[in-house]
Each structure stands twice: as C-alpha cells, then as structure tokens.
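Weekly sync notes, structure subgroup
Attendees: PM, AL, DS (notes)

Item 1: joint prediction request from the bench team. They want all three components modeled as one assembly rather than separately. Inputs as received:
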Amino acid sequence: MAGAREVLIDVTVNGQAYRRTVPARTLLVHFLREELRLTGTHVGCDTTQCGACTVDMDGVAVKSCTVLAAQASGHQLTTIEGLGGRHPVQRAFHEEHALQCGYCTPGMVMAVRQLLADSPDPAALTDEEIRAALVGNLCRCTGYQNIVAAVKAAGRAAAGRDASARRDASARRDASARQDASARRGA
Amino acid sequence: MTGAEARAGGGAAACAQAVTMVGKAVPRSEDAALVAGQGQFVDDLTVPGLLYAHVVRSPHAHARIAAIDAAAARSAPGVAGVFTADDMRGIGPLPGPPDGIGPALPLLRAPGDRVRWVGEPVALVVADGPARAADAAELVEVDYEPLPAVTDPVRAAAPDAPVLHEGLLAGNVCFRRRLTSGDGGDTAAAFAAARYRVGQRMISQRLAPVALEPRGVLAEPAGDRLHVRIGTQRPHGVRAWLSQMFGIPADAVRVTAGDVGGGFGAKGPLYPDQVAVIAAARLLGRPVKWIEERGESFLATTHGRDQVADLEMAVSADGTILAIRGTVHASMGAYLTPNAANTVLSRMAPLLPQTYDIGSIDVELIGVVANTTPIGPYRGAGRPEAAYYTERLVDLVALETGLDPAEVRRRNFIPPHSGHRTCTGQHYDSGNYRAAFDTALALAGYEELRREQRRARERGQLIGIGMCCFVEPGGIMPGDPGDRATVTRDPSGKVTVAVGTSAHGQGHRTAFAQLAADALGVPFEDVTVIFGDTAAAPFGYGTFGSRSAVAGGTAVVRACQALLAGGGTTATAAAETGGVTFASGSYLCVVEVDPDTGRVRIDRVIAVDDCGRVINPLLVEGQVHGGVAQGVGQALQERVCYDADGQPLSASLLDYAVPAATQVPFVETGRVETLSPLNPLGVKGMGESGTIGVTPAVVNAVMDALRPYGIRHLDMPLTAEKVWTAIQGARQVY
Amino acid sequence: MYAAEFGYQRAGSVVHALAALADGAGEVKVLAGGQSLLPMMKLRLAMPDLLVDIGGLAELATIEVSPQRTVLGAVATYRSLERDPLAGKAFPAMADALAVLADPQVRARGTVGGAVAHADPAADLPAVLLALDAELTVARRSATRTVPIDQFLRGVFATDLAEDEVLTRITVPAAGPGQAYQKFEQPASHLPLAGVCAAVEVTEGVISSARIAVTGVAGRPFRARRAERALAGAPPDPDALRSAAALVREEPVQPLQDQHAGGQFRLHLAGVLAGRALARAVARAVRP
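Output from the run, pasted for the record:
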C-alpha cells in the first residue's frame, strides 16, 4: 500500500487550530512560514545545526526544519509569535542587547525558554551551563556574551522574589568556576 | 529598574531639561519587532503570483560547457522557464574591479563558455514553488569537459598553473603592484644596516562570512518599473548597478533592503544569481523570489582573506622596527568582485605599519585568480590580514631580540598624536596607542600573568599570553558628495530621520535617533530613523567598512543643524567629513594548550578599543563581542578548504566551524577615547575591530604557550591536531 | 533543502509498520525521530519512496529500568532518557554521553534506536551501548530476533538490519557505577573525532572486568579488546590505566581520516580519552 504523497495536517499553533493539505515532503518550518504565514521562525541552514527554526512542540523545543509537517499533525505548537512580544525572555534579550541582526533571535528565544523550563533553579545557571544548552543555536553577530547575560536576567526574573539571593548564588558559582580556572593555571 | 536602564541614566524622560542621549547605553528601538518574530527579511515576503527560482551551478572547479539541455526541465511540473546566458544578452556587465585588471563575474553560462569554480551559476530554473524548482533543476543536463584546476594563490601564480582567463597581466596574475615608501632604496638600506632581520611566511586563510540569513532577492517587475527586495548592505548601489545593467532609469528602480540578517561585507556586492533572477522576472513579467540554501552559500557567496604573506622586518639592536618588506600573494577567486583588489591594495598593504613608527616599506602585492569562489569583503577586509602579519612579526622580533613582546611594542608605538602620516601614505587622524596598550595590560594584570606563566611552565603547563595592537581605518567615503540624511519634523513635533547608510544589525535606528535627539533637543522617543529603501532614504553608499557612524552620523547631525538653521520642516545634508578615521585598540589573550591533545582553551580576552566618541556603549560592546567571535573563529577553527580538484570540502556547517556558544570566550572590554578631528562627532568607525584585534592576540598567545618547544610559527586555524603534531615534532628534536 | 517527493504513512502499530515494510513498493524507510534521516533526505542523499512513521508508537518508547537490565524502546528519545531518573543512575556513562550529544532540540526528537540503526561511525551513544554489551531486538513481520550490538554494527552507515526489519528494543544488562564517557569534538559538527566509553568493575581492589568502546575513529565503533584483557586483574592505578590507554591507541583498526583529523591523531585521541574515561570510571567505581 503506497503512502499518500499529500497529507492532511491538523495542528494547533499558538492556540489556534489549522487544517491543511500539503505535500508529504513539507517540512514543519515551511508549513509554518508558507502555509500559515508565521514567518518569525527562520531557516538558516540545511544541516539541522543553526537552530533559527526552533519552535515548541508539545512543550518541548525542537528544530522545525527537521520535523515533517506530517509528523506534527495532531500536536500542539508554539512559535515565537505565540509568546506575545513581552515574554520575560524577550524582555531580557532587549534589555541586555542580546540581538543585533535578529535573524537567530526567534530560535534563540525559544531555546532559552526551554532551558529555563528545564532548570530546577533558573536563577543559578552558570555561563558554562547556558552555553552548553545553546550549542544548537548559532549566532554570528553577538558573540553570545549578551545572550548569556539575558538568560541569567530572565532566570532571575523567573525566580521572582528570591532573585537577589539566587543572583548571588549564580555569581558565586561563576566565581568558583573562574577560581577553578585560576587553580588550573596554578595562580 | 533594569541593568540597561540604570546604565542609561533612568531613560529619556520627556521633560523641559534636555537629557544627553549620546554616550548613553540606550536599549535598541529595533528590538521590539525582532524579538517578536515580526522582522521582514526577504524570505518573509510574498506577493500575488510569486514564482520561485533555483540556480543550477557548476559541479566542476574548471570546465568547458559542451552542451546544455533544458528540455526535460522546461516540461517539468510547475516550471515557468529555464534561463541561460542566451537569455541574459542585452544586460550590461556586473560591476568589476577598477582599471579592468580582471574580469567581473558573468551572469549565467552558455555552451562554449567555461566555468571556473564549483558553484558558478550556469542556469536558472523558475517554477511555482521552491521544491518544484529544485526538482526541475535536477533535470537540467549540462555536458562538461573538465579542465585542470588550481586553488592555492601561490600555485596559481606559477607559470605552469592551469590558466583561467586570457589577457590578464601574466597567466593568472591580474595585478602586481609595489608599495614603497620611497624608491625602495630606503628600505634596502634599512635592511642592510639592520641588526636583525625577522621574517616569516604567514597565511591568512580563506574564510566564509556565514551570515545567519542566506542571500536572497525578490524581484517584482511592474511595467517599466522594477521593485527589488534584496538582503543588501548597499541599496542605492544596487539601484545604480541595476539601472545601468538593465538600461532602466534609476528612478524607475526601487530597492528595499528591509531587515537584513547580517552581512559582514558579503551582502555588499551584487551577485550574478540575483541579477539572473531579476532578469528572469522581467522576461516572465512575474515576480520571482530566490533564497540561497546554506550549502549553496558556501559556494556562491563571496569568501574573505586567502592570502600568503612572505614578509620580514628590519630591526635595530634595541628592537626598533626600521622597515618591512616582502611579497603577498592574494587570491581573488575565479573572477574579480569590485573591491577584491582594493582590499589588498588599499586596506591591507598600506596598513602594515599598524600602530608603529616604521620608517620604510617595500612590499610587492600579487593578485591572482584561482578556481575558487570569488573573494569579496569580509569583516575587516584587509585590515585583519595586515594586523596579523605585523603582530606575528612583532612577536617574532621579541623572540629573536630576547625582549618581552610588550617591550618591543612600547619601543615602537607612534607617540600620542592628532595627525600622523605613515610611510605608506596613510593619514591617521588621532590616536594614543600607548594608552590603550597600558590599559589592556593593566586590565590583564600582565606582570602577574607572566609570573603565573613561569610557575605554570615549571609544572609542565602550557599557558600563553598574546597581544595585538592595531589601527582600524573606518568612515570610508567612496565618493563625493557623501551619504545624505534628510530630517523632517511634523506638526506634532515628531521627527523622521532618513539616511543613506544601511544597517543590518548595527543598531542605527537607535544610535542615529540618539544623535538627532541631542542635535534637535527633542525626546529620543519622538525620533524615527529610516533607511534601506531607495524610495524613502536619500542617497548613500550603504553600510560596510565601519563607515556608518562617521558617514551616516555626520550626515544626520548636519541635517539636524540645517533644519534648526533653516527653520523649515525638512532639511537634507550630506556627510562632509575630513576623511577616513582611524580607530585603534590593544587586545590581550591568555590561553592554555593541552599538550596531550593540542586543544587550545582561551581563558581570557581583554579588548581595549579606542573609537573616539561613543554614541551608544551597548552597541560598541556588542560589535566587539561579535567581532571577537569571528576573530577567534579564524584563529582556531574556521577554514574554507578545497581538494586537489577544486572540490569544496567545507561547504556545510558540518565541516565549516562557525563558533558556537561553547567556543567563544568571555570578553573583558575597556575603552580609551581619542576623538577624531575629522567629523563633528569625533567618532571613529569600529565595527570590525573585534575581528582585527583578537586573531593575532590568540595566535601570539598559542605560540607563546608553545615557546618551551621552540616552535616558531604555526598557521591558522590552530586546530588541536596541528598543535599536537607540532609538539610531537618538537619533542623528537629535544 | 527540499527533499524529493515521497509517500508518508503513519503506523498505527508495530504490526502495521512491519507490514508496510514488507509490502511496500520501492524503497521503504522507517521514520522515528527523523534527526538522522530527514537531514539526509533534505540534501537528497536519501530518496526513499515511502516513509513509515513509527515515532508515535508509545509501546516502542518505553524505558524500563530493573536490577538486571534496562530495556529501552527504540523510539525513546534522548531527552526522555536524559530525564529518566533511574536510567541516569543506572548508567552514568549514558548520562555523560547524553549531555554532550548533539544539542537539546535534536535530543528532544532523536531516538536511541535511530542512532543505532543509522550507524554513523561518529556517534556518541553507540559507544556506550557497545561498551555495555547491549542486545538489540529486531522485528520483521514473521519473526523477532536478538543480536548483540557488536554484531549488528557492520561499518559506515551499515548494519545487519534487513530492509523489512525494524529495531524495536535495546536491552542493556545492568552494570556497576564504574563507567564514564569522554569525547573530543570535531569543532564544526560537534560529532566525536574520538569518543571512548569505559566500564569497569573493581572487586577487592582489583579491576575484575574492563570494557572499552571507541567511536569516531574507525568505520564503526569498536571494543578495545587488548586493553580490556590487559586491565583484567590489574590494580586500578595510573600505570595500569596508562598502559591500557596505550593499547587502545595501538588497536589494529583502519582509522578514518578527513580534513578534520588524520588517522594517527584520531587513534592518539582514543588513547588519551581512554585514559581519562578509565580514570573517571575507576573513581566512580570506588566511590559511586
């Protein structure tokens, strides 16, 4: 029995239900951009590395260039457009100058959102942990430094009331990591 | 209050007393749309009846085309047309290099033509969807007769190399120019008298810019008019070139850049694939969009660097550098883009003196074509190469004289100045190189670092310290008059500033609004800045070469002054500046090398920049961070490489190592300020300084770490295997 | 960027998937997470006629940790494995590998079975599974068989999977806490230029067993049997580990080479990483 070369997609995106018929080979990123005209999710590569296409599928950040629209049928998606523009991560990116050209930014924001959701203590994330979590999101403009600062700021915001205590905890862990580095150098 | 608000001094409140915006760390106006995914990049646009193009490219580095059969492609589902060079007749040539020293890029190819690099556009398929265009492109049959290929510039200059073009200066050599301070006699005398001659072959390897947004274009013909949406750094340039090539009056061509996802120089030129798409759109009478795939971009978008430098310094007994001489072979790629030769002749060689008071120079510059992607501007464009060659040689001078590398630099700096003429004829506007250097060393704790290094060496740990002092010319004005700005005030008091530069991430909407707010005494929030659309923005040269704060900024300030003086509702002014500015800096890097694996870990980067007046420190710092990331990439992990047949080996992110978040160090920034006397703001262009300053600092640090092994020099990128292999070799010697 | 056209079927059950594989006209491939297959299809390096999507089959995504063994459904994602509280404790080397494998988004979709069936010579998890002597359950319409992973992995992108077969389960016998995975990345792809998993048992102050698997270095991950034999009965001290590491370096394999690293350097890295993985494994064995 041959499979269908066109597939019926039933998907909820940013809370809204859509039903479309598309070629089976349609990637989720193209479905979002071309069918639904949600062009905030970007294409930056063809080897699943750059992360500009990152969206949330059933509460987990995935690279929409490496998901078929057919695979997403029946699932719930959130794209950058679904965050509203004033999400704490978006605010933190703005305040910390964590974007320049803005092309990697939607995917980066979605990846950061996932990192914070996965962290038991988002306000205490270290530089190293943040950078490792963002290895799947390339940026050619910012050098990542302000993105790391934005993640920390958003983490503190997520932690709310105990923010300053946790900021100290994160700073202590970073200082300790730098001390380890110095110790390695035998200072 | 957020950190940024604190830095901005509480924000710009609308109150009677004017708040100075210039110098404040104002968060960007650009951000709201971009963080929300509301940017308008070329691929985000659609128009009714849109068709999509796919480029058929040469799979051979060098070949003659015997035949092209597009019949199957033409009848494939959804195909509107297949185009070759025959369809491009009547379209004028792409802009090429000055003096006709070499051929510009052709548009497409036809039977009988030669292709000269893997990726050269041969034909164009247009269909009703991008996937169907890709399907049909596979059906275009091209018969190639392969020819021998050459990829390395020194090899390409050899008399027995395969020849790419007829009629160049000699074989593949398209220029051979000598840069001398006098008649060469002064340099010869310096070398004859020198106590030390310190020479080295150094390679600045070929790099790919890799802006996150691939190149693209959306061409919309409308009768005699043409609207082109294109990710470009030079919208007015594109309009002028298209007008010329297609024979359409410039005012019938509208070019819109929209949001551009990074450029780094590579979105400056106009490309044959883009022109072919525009031509196809006009022939079909339909709008056509084309967006490059990433793998395609590694072939089709211009590369940077690719030079081999054989240079030496004449040095006196006390470490004074007297002269520089030698030869630099520079690849142009298979064809010459307009600025490829200038990059070497105007932005590399004349910058070799860097921050030092060097008496004479005699350098031969040899430009060569080869079967590789054409060279175009890439962040720094000549200046990183010059800084690298000079700063590597300075560290080798330290090695041979036994002086501390810091001391060699101190003994050679041009003293603090507001005007210095180099032996290469460059006029530096102002600078205090010693101050930046001292600042960097103080921030680093240099003496303590050297002590740490001595202790580490006793334990067998390989710690290295490297530095780089550099100048960065910026604010280039390619023509006269300069870029324009138009300032308009509406009855409610809101101000619109339209300017001829064209940002692609640099934050001009914010920076120029800061300038206008101060110049006019209006609240920052009341100023809107527009650019990038030839229908809305006055003439300008675009954004590249660290020019916009100088050119755009000066135009904005002058227009504001004209508005105040004239008393009307609108005023236009051109950027009249006194010339090219010279930012400068001192960077220092600390590395540790793992002797078991050769892996280099960067422990610290200290970046002290002098860019004159700072309009917005957030933006300046951001440029430094991004430039450092690219500079670290060149030093440690990026390289475009080809095999012996000219087949690219690094045409994907799986093989070309663009630095990821785990591969870029934390940057400690510092600042020195020597205002430029050449423009009313005192600003100096600095967008490329990170890339210029960090690469030599990293390489010098690694070579310093390897000092115990007596390894003199290693070429970039300093991969683990390269470093480890060198250590093994040295261990055998000892 | 645009795959060639193909047909798509979502499998409602394993039985359905196996029938589709057996009956399908043309080239039929199973789609699980798609993190290996879809990139190849986007570059038109793979052009199957039919994709059978088993990614939604919950019965193939389970993770069952018990005292004797852990059974992983082939379609369990790396992310689900990372977040399983028991699996990480049961297999510290797996936790090591998962932390450095690909990136969080790819781990959210990529499956453990997909990695094994794809057989990229530079993949992290197969080294751990090989060191731990995992057994694979392979199903076809008419039968099911089990095969040790060392027999299953044949070469570069080559396994012993037939065209009508699907990998359904990976069974990992329980092991002690003395295990670790160390990796040296290719800076562009972040795949291992070399990756070594070491699993040791230390009994009464002596290494009673050592298992060492190397990935990224040869056409398929391999066990460094000479080093393993040399360590059996040896005290877990630096000299013994250093000798073992040297033996890893001297394994008679044909190393991979490309513009990123030559064969000699890869073998050298394997030795260095083996030393580090063994040291870590020993430390975890004596102080879990």
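Discussion: Chain A touches chain C through 37 residues (CB under 8 Å).
Action: AL to compare against the crosslinking data before next sync.
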